[in-house]
Inverse folding.
């Protein structure tokens, strides 16, 4: 398989120094940043540390002379990054909080934030690789896709296929699914799109959900298109029809590229430039420069011979 299908990215262990707290050695939980030097720690770790010291544990900058807790702020952006990069961390942390407050109901009465109690909210959507994501696949081009139903009053899509996949499934897996479904060979190119944007092969479903802020209130809507690599045909806005090798015919409204067509070589543009008949006659009439020079020499020698014979 070509190199374009090889996923490229960083492992979590490569960014661990930026996700871990120097005080406890674990991943950030309730990440909190000191406003004076912008160093981050776990909330419980830095609060406990500042009770005995008023200086940053990393750079030794004074946080505050008398009240160091005034110059620390919750860093929700950093905490979201940690939860999204470390698999299972968010779910395990929420589970520990629920177990703790169920065993200590008096402390739970003083906690007003649902996330602090371990209750999952829609405001923070964190996915894990084993989560099941509902999605749909349909042939089209996003906002300019085909009408997927033949009856306007029918809400069911006859061409829209619904799937349930783990969040760790990649775009490359979906491409292989389409290739096997239509029995396509290597000459055909399959592209997966989130509406009008083409997705990279190494994107996981959870990555797509994070990038495009997808919520679970409806299936993730993905589109695909099939093109022939060997045919370079200009784009058109007319409705065309193609048929896969499995015999499934699909019509499409084109927006930027040409779909899979039948094996008709008459539509293929060639790079050969045809010459006009006048240019051809001009080429035949004018011999090359070397030929013209040799003809002039022959004429000159023949003329000299004639003059010698005359005298």
């Amino acid at each position: 398989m070509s190199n374009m299908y090889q996923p490229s990215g960083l492992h979590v262990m490569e960014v661990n120094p930026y996700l871990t707290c120097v005080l406890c050695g674990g991943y950030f939980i309730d990440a909190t940043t000191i406003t004076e030097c912008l160093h981050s720690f776990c909330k419980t770790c830095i609060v406990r540390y500042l009770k005995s010291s008023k200086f940053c544990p990393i750079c030794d900058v004074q946080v505050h002379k008398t009240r160091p807790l005034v110059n620390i702020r919750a860093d929700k952006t950093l905490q979201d990054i940690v939860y999204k990069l470390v698999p299972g961390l968010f779910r395990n942390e929420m589970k520990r909080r629920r177990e703790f407050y169920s065993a200590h109901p008096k402390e739970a009465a003083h906690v007003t934030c649902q996330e602090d109690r371990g209750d999952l909210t829609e405001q923070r959507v964190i996915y894990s690789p084993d989560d099941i994501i509902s999605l749909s696949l349909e042939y089209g081009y996003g906002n300019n896709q085909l009408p997927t139903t033949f009856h306007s009053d029918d809400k069911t899509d006859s061409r829209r296929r619904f799937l349930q996949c783990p969040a760790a499934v990649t775009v490359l897996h979906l491409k292989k699914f389409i290739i096997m479904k239509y029995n396509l060979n290597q000459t055909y190119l399959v592209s997966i799109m989130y509406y009008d944007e083409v997705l990279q092969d190494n994107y996981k479903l959870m990555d797509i959900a994070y990038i495009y802020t997808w919520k679970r209130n409806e299936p993730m809507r993905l589109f695909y298109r099939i093109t022939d690599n060997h045919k370079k045909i200009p784009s058109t806005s007319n409705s065309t029809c193609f048929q896969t090798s499995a015999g499934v015919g699909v019509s499409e409204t084109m927006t930027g590229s040409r779909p899979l067509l039948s094996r008709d070589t008459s539509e293929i543009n060639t790079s050969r430039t045809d010459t006009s008949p006048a240019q051809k006659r001009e080429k035949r009439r004018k011999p090359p420069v070397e030929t013209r020079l040799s003809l002039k020499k022959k004429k000159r020698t023949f003329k000299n011979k004639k003059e010698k014979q005359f005298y």
Observations:
- Residues 1-7, 144-156, 233-272 have pLDDT under 50 and may be disordered.
